[in-house]
Amino acid sequence: MKAGAYFKDHSGVLITWILTLAVAIVFFAAFRSPVEEIIIIITVLILGGTVSFFVDFNRKKNFYDTLKANSAGLDKKYLVSETIKEPGFIEGKIAYDALCEAGRTMCEEVGKCRSDYAEFKNYIELWVHEIKLPVASLLLAAHSEKENGERYIPLLKRVDEYIENVLYYARSENSEKDYLITDVLVKRAFTDAALKAREELQLRNVAIETDNLDVKVKTDAKWLEFMFGQFIGNALKYTRPGVEPIIRVEAKETENDVRVSFADNGIGIPAADLQRVFDKSFTGKNGRKQAKSTGMGLYIVKTLCDRLGHKVEIESKEGEYTKITLVFGKDEFMSVQELNVT
């Protein structure tokens, strides 16, 4: 709090005080008081008023400056009342009590929201595990059905993929509680993801090319497999009519990082959409043509990369290709992380 702002706010009090001194001088003169007495009394009044203003300004300045500084340094502003002491002036006490009440109410609301979120997340996870059983049964039945079974396998696989997306999205918001950073073989993670999409890859005659995947990266194996699964799913969704689909996965190792790229020769992404493909629920021009596009896959991938300390880059040319690159740092301190499965 600046002195100029303080005195401007108290200008009414200051003007009243000055007018009072002027009236006092007039009365002293009217009653022919000795000049020495007038000077002494006026001096005492001025000193008393000055000290009073200074003391009031100083204690308010200390309180409000501390309040402002502490609030600026907090991520959760509603906790600011916990960082300050109750002031000794009435306006400050009123503000302090209001802040404490607001903070208490907000903490209760945050606690309720966290409880509701945890309950909903548990329900989603339970629902996913329950729904996967009938889907698995339908897949088994489709494999056993000789005449029409093959028609339904890709659809059931897609349903299973969307169910997995729900589970991974629910967990991605708190992925730090559900990962284990280890040395993961890129080839193994990609192979596991490709095997899950095996039927549709074969049905569409997708050619898969790999290069230098016998390299290890520091990440969580489950999440990496999920990300590869999203890339494969997108490559299958956005193939070019009349063109044999090709997926190429390669890894390049440098002194500071490992870059794993996933490229397809599909319809590509319009330049106007390229900067927004990682936004939540963004489907873009191509996605709006596809009823099965949700705009969540790449958003979840970006969220996971941010939380796991990786980078994700994308480049594309409409009508030719799309290439997504995962960048894994070589940080020795990331070799071991706490495992905490929720």
Description:
By secondary structure, this protein is of the alpha+beta class. The protein folds into two domains: 3-107, no CATH class; 178-342, Histidine kinase-like ATPase, C-terminal domain (Heat Shock Protein 90, 2-Layer Sandwich), CATH 3.30.565.10. 57% of the residues lie in helices and 13% in strands. It is built from ten helices and seven strands. It has helices at residues 3-9, 11-30, 35-72, 90-144, 149-172, 186-196, 198-203, 221-237, 284-289, 297-308, and strands at 182-185, 207-211, 216-219, 246-253, 257-264, 311-317, 321-329. Strands 2-4-5-7-6 form a five-stranded mixed sheet, covered by helices on one side. A two-stranded antiparallel ribbon has the order 1-3. β4 (246-253) and β5 form a beta hairpin. α6 (186-196) crosses α8 and α8 (221-237) packs antiparallel against α10. The radius of gyration is 34 Å and the shape is elongated. The relative contact order is 0.07.
Keywords:
342 residues, alpha+beta, Heat Shock Protein 90, five-stranded mixed β-sheet, two-stranded antiparallel sheet, 57% helix, elongated, disordered C terminus
